[in-house]
Amino acid sequence: MKDKSSAKATPGRPEGDVAPEILGYLTKHPSAEDTLEGIVQWLILEKHLQTTPGIVAHALAQLIERRLVTTRQGTGGPMIYHLISHSAKAA
Fold first, then answer.
1. Which residues contact 66 (CB under 8 A, 6 or more apart)?
2. In Å, what is the CA distance from 3 to each residue of 39, 52, 67, 88?
3. Tens-place pLDDT, residues 81-91
4. Are 10 and 46 in contact (CB under 8 A)?
5. What is the DSSP code (8-state) at residue 8?
6. pLDDT tens, 36-68?
7. What are the structural domains, with CATH classification, of the chain?
8. 3-class secondary structure, 68
9. How many Cβ atoms from other residues are within 10 Å of residue 51's Cβ?
10. Long-range contacts of 45-51 (CB under 8 A, 24+ apart)
């Protein structure tokens, strides 16, 4: 298992710079939602970022702390991450 320090960066991009990618996608697709594992796979396969679940979890925690992303969890299912809707922010 690779730790944060052993992950390689995409040229010109720090390997830990995934929060803007996640937020950008969710902003363009406000109904999108996914699990941590799904987001990691998307970043690796679609954005060609070499990242780890730990790095992505940290980025998601920052987005949650900034009240931009929230979570929901079904009975016994994985945590699902999604954009906080504008109407939810106003409430």
1. none
2. 18, 8, 27, 36
3. 999 985 444 44
4. no
5. P
6. 999 999 999 999 998 999 999 999 999 999 999
7. 16-90 (1.10.10.10)
8. coil
9. 24
10. 47/21, 48/10, 49/10, 49/13, 49/15, 49/18, 49/21, 50/7, 50/8, 50/9, 50/10, 50/15, 51/7, 51/15, 51/16, 51/18
